[in-house]
Design a protein that fits this description.
With 389 residues, the protein is of the alpha/beta class. 38% of the residues lie in helices and 14% in strands. The structure holds pyridoxal-5'-phosphate (PLP). Pyridoxal-5'-phosphate binds next to helix 3 and helix 4.
């Protein structure tokens, strides 16, 4: 039985799907003495590596920590620049700034929501060391162009895969197309460990550094210590480890991922059909066989005449018991911290401003079914009509 089954008529934007197997796995951890850096963490890493095809998978406490850890391990720091998209979670930019480097914003492509390769080229300077792409809502970025730019200028490509479990580009799972990728297992993501993340890479030397730096730079794990408590520290590091309860959740959730993805696909297709009837709605590219979308949600940009009244549209949908969200609430350079730090002004990122200003995220996650999708489409139709009155 699913604890998240709706007892009301409400359609939530996102809900974790936690069942008996997840609860039993967590209770099993709690019945024993090993709550951190134990066998479940290793098992979850091996399972995730097998599921994505990653040579290396490194569990972390959350996606933001993983992104920071990668830039840190690469030695990115003061004086360096990393190019990030304007429309993303602030974590993509913060992960760069936490190292002392500067996050330089490149605008998005209006058709996909992904970073625009032409804008990346325009943002290059002699200080650029990397590019952080975000596979926006699960649609892969144009990795052919991004990798070509990176190769030409000797840059590291970090894929922010927070919304990209199940995303593939040319048959390759997200995170393995650039230099490394980091996933998020926050409660409403494709799968959850409550809080958690996973780094994947093909680079064994980088993986070694990441494993060291995620645990204080300590040279040996608990099980490798001949005398308990005796170890050396060989690098600077953090405590960015995933605990055993989170890993136990992840092991079970990963087994359900194929089913989750099938439901997301069916829901997104049904919702797409329901939205066809709405005039003037701006829709995003849904991918194709080469660019496999993992459908975190279905984001639209409201018709031009109601885009400025998004809050009213969202509230009119809420009144019909349909939840929505916004991904993301502003181009990151316009959020107070970045605006005040770097003095960004309106008009500098027109695509990001247009998108963030009028976008609304509609639910299509696997706590819902295709009948719910018809209700989401109808609720948006009604909401737009009401706001136009
Ligand atoms: C694109 C993106 N990157 C990073 C994050 C941060 O993930 P976490 O909460 O696991 O640190 C999010 C969270 O929603 C996100 O959407």
């Amino acid at each position: 039985m699913n604890s998240t089954k709706n007892t009301t008529n409400e359609i939530h934007f996102g809900r974790p799907l936690i069942g008996e197997a997840e609860r039993a796995a967590v209770m099993d951890v709690l019945a024993g003495p090993v709550l951190a850096h134990g066998p479940r963490g290793k098992q979850f890493e091996a399972d995730f590596a097998a599921w994505t095809g990653a040579p290396e998978a490194i569990s972390v406490s959350n996606c933001t920590a993983g992104l920071h850890l990668v830039w840190f391990a690469l030695g990115i720091g003061p004086g360096d620049e990393v190019i990030v998209p304007t429309v993303t979670h602030t974590a993509t930019a913060h992960a760069v700034e936490l190292t002392g480097a500067r996050a330089v914003f490149a605008d998005i492509d209006r058709a996909t929501g992904n970073i625009d390769p032409a804008a990346v080229e325009a943002a290059l300077t002699p200080r650029t060391r990397g590019i952080s792409v975000v596979h926006f809502l699960g649609l892969p970025a144009n990795m052919t162009r991004i990798n070509a730019i990176a190769q030409k200028h000797n840059l590291f490509v970090l894929e922010d895969c927070a919304l990209a479990v199940g995303t593939r580009f040319d048959g390759v799972h997200a995170g393995l197309i650039g230099g490394a990728g980091v996933f998020s297992f926050y409660p409403v993501k494709h799968m959850t460990t409550a809080e958690g993340g996973m780094i994947v890479t093909r680079d064994a030397a980088l993986a070694r550094k990441l494993r060291l730096a995620k645990a204080f730079g300590v040279d040996r794990g608990v099980e490798e210590r001949t005398v308990p408590g005796i170890y050396d520290v060989v690098s600077l590091g953090f405590n960015y480890r995933m605990n055993e309860m989170a890993a136990a959740l992840g092991i079970v959730q990963l087994k359900r991922m194929d089913g989750f993805l099938n439901t997301r696909r069916a829901n997104a297709a049904a919702l797409g059909k329901a939205l066809d009837a709405i005039d003037g709605l701006h829709r995003l590219d849904v991918g194709d066989a080469k660019r496999v979308h993992s459908h975190y949600c279905t984001s639209v940009v409201l018709p031009d005449d109601v885009a400025g009244k998004r809050a009213e549209v969202a509230l009119a949908m809420k009144a019909q018991a349909v939840g929505t969200s916004v991904y993301y609430p502003g181009p990151v350079p316009h959020l107070t911290y970045y605006r005040e730090k770097y003095g960004y002004r309106r008009g500098q990122f027109p695509a990001g401003e247009w998108f963030s200003g009028g976008t609304l995220a509609l639910p299509c996650a696997p706590h819902l079914d295709t009948n719910d999708m018809a209700r989401v489409g109808a609720a948006l139709t009604t909401a737009i009509k009401e706001v136009r009155k």
